[in-house]
Amino acid sequence: MSEAGERKSVLKVLGGEAVWPPPIWLMRQAGRHLPEYRETRAKAGSFLDLCYDPALAAEVTLQPIRRFGYDAAILFSDILVVPQALGQSLWFVEGEGPRLDPVADRAALDALRPDLSRLDPIYETIRRVRPELPPQTTFLGFCGAPWTVATYMVAGRGTRDQGPARSAAAGDPAFFQAVIDRIVEASIHYLVAQFRAGVDAVQIFDSWAGALQGEDFRRWCVEPVERIVAGIRREIPDAPVIAFPRGVAAPELALAAALPVQAFGIGQGADLAAARDVLGERVALQGNLDPDALIAGGETLDRAIDAVLAAARGRPHIFNLGHGILPETPIPHVERMLARVRAG
Ligand code: CP3
């Protein structure tokens, strides 16, 4: 029996063990690069219909596990279901991205009518996926970090530089803190419920953490995530958490190091060895193959994989991309990557 068959390799790594070859999963592994996803998605109608349909969401969560045997499955949902449960209207414009009615001031925030039971179908997805997973496969839940979620809530859409949220944080910090506080409370409730429904660990996506520096980063990125982790651990002691403050420079990574999490996701372009120097040897790192290298394939891909493996060897590491897999990624390139990582 292989080592991986004994216990979940991702959980071992989150416990501080250096597992070799490193376990692997990919952000956005359930998504448009898979023909079977596109087929299920067409059946569901809209992307949000898919997120809230437990049978179909469970199916797309399992698709990449069946095809590639990744070491972790990630719940199929979206970070923006939390603002929706907080009462904000949400829709996706095909080919463009998410839209929300902006919460630009205190009056708009006070007008929201939260209803966290809107998240119930997502727990049902987890209960359906759980028994279908191979025993060695770790099941990951997730939410967005309050800063990243707030950038969408305040602007009403994705923005290039997160300007509207940065302006709100600087111009009306009491209002912005109130937005963050609502997201923190809802996220604790949401992640605790995900654990109770059957996930093994959770990842907190702070995709736009790179937009803040220094004290702003500490206040809006580190402190809210710290509160979420503390809130989860009050209910589920030792709950494994992966923080993903994407795109931060060394001084901010040093501030993030205060988070009591088991792993840090590292975005593409960041140097894994430098991140190790900042974060120390015991915490697990996750990442950070460039999604463009996975599109390029061939020797470009092999060299990029080898660079990640070289930095990961002998340390607790989870192989992943530095951001989500892109829809145009050829499936043979994913297969080539898996073979190379699994060969160590
Ligand atoms: O990783 C996974 O496989 C789990 C599912 C997952 C999705 N979104 C599915 C999705 C996760 C973890 C997310 C997180 C998410 N969503 C983030 C943080 C991580 C990141 O990518 O930076 C953010 C910022 C969002 C918000 C969001 N959702 C945007 C901006 C978009 C539109 C862009 C796009 O790719 O279309 C989405 C849509 C989305 N979320 C899709 C998927 C599979 C594509 C929807 C489709 O099928 O058309």
TrEMBL record:
A Pfam family the protein falls into: URO-D
UniProt EC number: 4.1.1.37
Positions of the Uroporphyrinogen decarboxylase (URO-D) domain: 23-32, 140-156
GO BP term (any one): protoporphyrinogen IX biosynthetic process from glutamate
Catalyses which reaction(s): uroporphyrinogen III + 4 H(+) = coproporphyrinogen III + 4 CO2
Localization in the cell: Cytoplasm
CDD domains: URO-D (cd00717)
Alphabetized UniProt keyword annotations: Cytoplasm, Decarboxylase, Lyase, Porphyrin biosynthesis
Molecular function via GO: uroporphyrinogen decarboxylase activity
Chain sites annotated for binding substrate: R28, Q29, A30, G31, R32, D78, Y152, S207, H323
InterPro entries documented for this protein: UROD/MetE-like_sf, Uroporphyrinogen_deCO2ase_HemE, Uroporphyrinogen_deCOase
Site location (Transition state stabilizer): D78
This protein's record includes keyword Cytoplasm: yes
Domain of life per record: Bacteria
Pathway field: Porphyrin-containing compound metabolism; protoporphyrin-IX biosynthesis; coproporphyrinogen-III from 5-aminolevulinate: step 4/4
One cellular component (GO) term of this entry: cytosol
Assembly, per entry: Homodimer.
Family to which this protein belongs: Belongs to the uroporphyrinogen decarboxylase family.
Protein name (database record): Uroporphyrinogen decarboxylase
